[in-house]
């Protein structure tokens, strides 16, 4: 049993942040030289990939929930203006 659902977007974003921390950590101990503008493509790419992963996971969860649903109509609870529950 899982304690929470898997969030791939957060995983990608966490790996991006970890990558940036390692790159700038290596720069801080003078293992290599990192230009200040090196963060921009890595950060933007990581944010883009995280957004894409989140969108794909959402679409998969939504499709799975629709297939498990017992209600097969797309009609609202009431179409005549009445707010009564079916």
TrEMBL record:
Keywords: Membrane, Transmembrane, Transmembrane helix. Residues 76-86 have a biased composition (Polar residues). The chain crosses the membrane at residues 35-58. The keyword Transmembrane helix applies. Residues 64-86 are annotated as: Disordered. The keyword Membrane applies. This is Integral membrane protein. It comes from Streptomyces gulbargensis. The lineage of its organism: Bacteria, Bacillati, Actinomycetota, Actinomycetes, Kitasatosporales.
């Amino acid at each position: 049993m899982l304690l929470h659902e898997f969030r791939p977007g957060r995983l990608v974003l966490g790996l991006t942040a970890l990558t940036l921390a390692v790159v700038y950590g290596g720069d801080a101990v003078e293992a290599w030289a990192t230009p200040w503008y090196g963060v921009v493509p890595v950060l933007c790419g990581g944010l883009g990939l995280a957004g894409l992963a989140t969108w794909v996971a959402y679409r998969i969860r939504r499709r799975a929930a629709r297939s498990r649903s017992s209600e097969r109509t797309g009609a609202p609870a009431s179409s005549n203006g009445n707010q009564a529950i079916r």
